[in-house]
Amino acid sequence: MDLSKITESFTESVIREMTRIAHQHPRSINLAQGFPDFPAPESIKNAAINAIKDDINQYSITWGALSLRKAIVDKISKYNKIKFVDPNKNITVTCGSTEAMISAMKAIINPGDEIIIFEPFYENYGPDCLLSGAKPRYIQLQAPSWSLEPEGLKMLFNKKTKAIIINTPNNPTGKVYNQEELKLIADLCLDYNAIAITDEIYEHILYDNKKHISIASLSGMQDNSITINSISKTYSLTGWRVGWAIACERITNEIKKVHDFLTVGAPAPLQEAGAFALSLEDEYYQSLKDFYQKARDILFNALKNTNLRPIKPKGAYYMMTNCKEYMKRQDLKTSMDLAIHLVKDIGIVTVPGSSFYANPQDGQFQTRFCFCKKEETLQAAARKLEKIGY
Ligand SMILES: Cc1ncc(COP(=O)(O)O)c(C=O)c1O
């Protein structure tokens, strides 16, 4: 019996696989999958408990509880400077940004359409494209600056280009797209009538005074953008599965239909708690930034003293490393060999660089660490890293 040719064309997530490998090595420290090992904010947990006790336990309106949609409008107008959002016309609340991404693609793609993806990428984007029937077209950003090369991007746009995916701040590179880069992408989208699908789940995790810019706030982008976000990273609630997609009414109407038939709705009481979370004061976001800046510096300083060369991120909570010299010395051939060696011999779980590229060879000498962990976890990792040496 034939099974789906599409699903057979990609593998399971390597990131999630590394977490399973971590479970097989209980003394290892899991710096692979990006989820915090510290408690979520007490006040948000209480808001969820109260919502359950108040019996908000049945389906919400399929495209999202009104309280959450109103809170999103408030936030997106103040923080992202996106003014066109109406809670009834432009928002679809989804099961995490993961569902928002696939629903967005399914809502806009026809056979033969192309989607441009920057490499290294968050590994869901390739399978999302394939599942929606689009052809992914990749363009590589080079370490250590990860800067965008305008001519290469211009050459990739053509009449089949339906969308381009932006992820800023970026996983895995820590790149934060600047105004000039976003303007270039926006102009190309407008020239080719393509859509910028922008994954902004790390929008509050920024270092060294970097600023987050949403491409949807740039002039003319209202009808050519889909802005995706969730409560997973900003509020350390990756297991709650509440996210959303924001787009013009025409696109939103299609996303709502895909979402309805995929999942019906996101968890109702957790949407209420999400609305509460979005109303937190500026101090919360400042302390989140300060916390992660310290975490980044602990991991960076530990890696700097090893032969795994870290590239300092400007945002998000991941650090890419260039391990070529170390791999040569240890006679390790692939980035998976390196990751397995780091688990077994050093006791740290990372994500092999190959999983961030269409051609695994391109990430051969890289591995990604995450640092969304308690200070004591990172200090313990730093002690383990001392075994590597310079
Ligand atoms: C760039 C990026 N997008 C989306 C996700 C998944 O987010 P969510 O929990 O909102 O589905 C992740 C998780 O690590 C991510 O790094």
Keywords:
single chain; 390 residues; Aspartate Aminotransferase, domain 1; Aspartate Aminotransferase, domain 2; seven-stranded mixed sheet; four-stranded antiparallel sheet; binds pyridoxal-5'-phosphate
In short, what is this structure?
The protein is α/β, with parallel strands linked by helices. The protein is built from 14 helices and 13 strands. The strands form three sheets. The chain has a seven-stranded mixed beta sheet, with helices on both faces. It has a four-stranded antiparallel beta sheet with strand order 9-10-13-12. It has a two-stranded parallel sheet with strand order 1-11.
Secondary-structure map with pairings?
Elements lengths: L4 H4 L5 H11 L4 E2 L11 H12 L12 H13 L12 E4 L1 H13 L5 E6 L5 H8 L2 E6 L9 H7 L4 E7 L11 H14 L2 E5 L25 E6 L12 E4 L2 H15 L4 H11 L3 H23 L4 E3 L6 E5 L1 H7 L4 H12 L1 E2 L1 E2 L13 E5 L4 H11 L5
Helix pairs in contact: 3-10, 4-10, 5-6, 5-9, 11-14
This protein binds pyridoxal-5'-phosphate.
How does this structure look, described?
- This protein has two domains: 138 residues, Aspartate Aminotransferase, domain 1 (Alpha-Beta Complex); 239 residues, Aspartate Aminotransferase, domain 2 (3-Layer(aba) Sandwich).
- It is globular, with a radius of gyration of 21 Å.
- The strands form three sheets. A seven-stranded mixed β-sheet has the order 2-8-7-6-5-3-4, sandwiched between helices.
- The longest helix has 23 residues.
- It has 14 helices and 13 strands.
- With 390 residues, the protein is an alpha/beta fold.
- A hairpin with a 6-residue loop joins β9 and β10.
- Pyridoxal-5'-phosphate (PLP) binds next to α5.
